[in-house]
């Protein structure tokens, strides 16, 4: 990396976690500033996480101070105090650690040209963490502007888990020219030490969390110095923390960390981990990336890993040294999850990472960036278009689309142009554009950013201490006196006050807070491996006895599909008729398909009662027998029911709410006050209805459709599933429930049960009854 820097070359460094990527990225900067000390901003470090910037600052300042170098290293994120932010623009440090959102805001100031004119290097850490998302679009546009302000700028990317380095070299490079970015590969280091935890050699029929193994996980925490316990959702993290606390007989210090906790709570936990005061930490994706704590010697993944790259990234947090294997243990929640866990370990052993799916840059992000550039200074239209096209996600941007975005920022579009509040840009002679009025600069900075959170309420004690936030939708189900688990505590609701929930600690058991948003779906290559495992008996000797028995009885009672086949089983159960499809396309795709198929069942007179889905399959049930499943899966479902359903559901409205906020059409904040989530939703719903009626081809409606298709319904996987159904469906009609159907059928019973220990007992009993019926030959 030093040699590349000396030649002025940009570089992508792909190296194992613990190989010293961060130091390799910063070493050229330290050397240059040691040889030629200089004031002003020299290096920008951009990370996807606020916590990562703080962590790197801690690990970087130590060596710099030990060498006695006059180098200032500071962070700038949403958590940075405003007085320090103001001072950083006037007297920036030599090294600034920031996030894509904060960088975009810095570029919106009129003095940004002076601040960045001598910038030498930008380091993008954990590149895979956001390059393919809207935050990556924003960062890529910011890098294009930085390159214009500092033409000699070097770009450096760092990552541990990339399956297609050339795609990332293109993303990192000016004009998407990957030849401008050298690939540097680190030593792969020791092979990870990975295993699957199976308590008493039994895996439950149902569940997706690994909760059954809480006592065994606690024993692992007792046997290791520091253990990170990863969960796939915030709700699950709260649940697992409570389960571990209940069996923490030795009262070991354990903590919890996720994105909804107050920044003070997160910092306390991070500090405790860094100083070795915690023995265990339950965490979510908030700690997936780059946090380097040397004493972590075990990582436990609760539930299925969903992807080999994600698992490798998480396991890499353990034994942060290149010459020692990272130790990781997966705790599968059910038998399908066991297969997925085994597939992930095999993929890692074979060096197969999750595929990279890049897509064109989002138009709502581009609208926000264009306004930020106008806020910093008037711009010339053709110059800005050329600059935008030099960022990889927007390399193919049509001039017509660019002009449409300019028109949208200038007027709001045809249906909204009568309203002054939507006029944010004004054209001038010679293709120049400027902001319509000075207040727009302040409004932009208050509302910029591409992470649109669900409307939230703040959880506080009466003394004012803030614990974090919960989503408005969940908060609306609470009343004074209700109990819920949050931040590792049992809390009783005392009162609702403005946007706060006032709580007190309780010793009684509570509900687990749930959050909206997408679940992570199993990656396509893990799904493919699981399909192959099902029909390859040569693999079964590696499985626990109960898993191989499960598959054996399935093959006798029904069939195990070939990898290319879509198995659909139909059977009666307790007065209802069930259809179960094993498609392995992920929870999000199955949820969407379940809605569409139950609509078709309604039309066909099959009297549907509902459906349930998991990552592995979909079960629909009703009062009439389904004789012809193929008709329900016919490909025209995506042309007819899909469009009707999306347009009539909240799906498109929710997507529109996000693009309207990012695109600047609806503001979350005004000087001195913040809109409630309900107010934002009300504003976007009104505008949505106007545009649907009068301007259905509006830029933001198209952007919302793109979002709805791409992210919320995983359209690509839906299309593959429907295609496969029409060509390879294998329909088996059986007289009763089959072994492979049990994990799905248990979910049907879950909906009627209240949360709590008694419900868990009922579920276990129900699962055993279903299993007995399914496994009887």
UniProtKB/TrEMBL annotation:
One of its GO terms (molecular function) is ligase activity. It holds the Pfam family DEAD. Residues 216-374 form the Helicase C-terminal domain. It comes from the Bacteria. The keyword Ligase applies. Keywords: ATP-binding, DNA damage, DNA repair, DNA-binding, Helicase, Hydrolase, Isomerase, Ligase, Nucleotide-binding. Residues 2-180 form the Helicase ATP-binding domain. Belongs to the Lhr helicase family. Lhr-Core subfamily. This is Ligase-associated DNA damage response DEXH box helicase. It comes from Sphingomonas limnosediminicola.
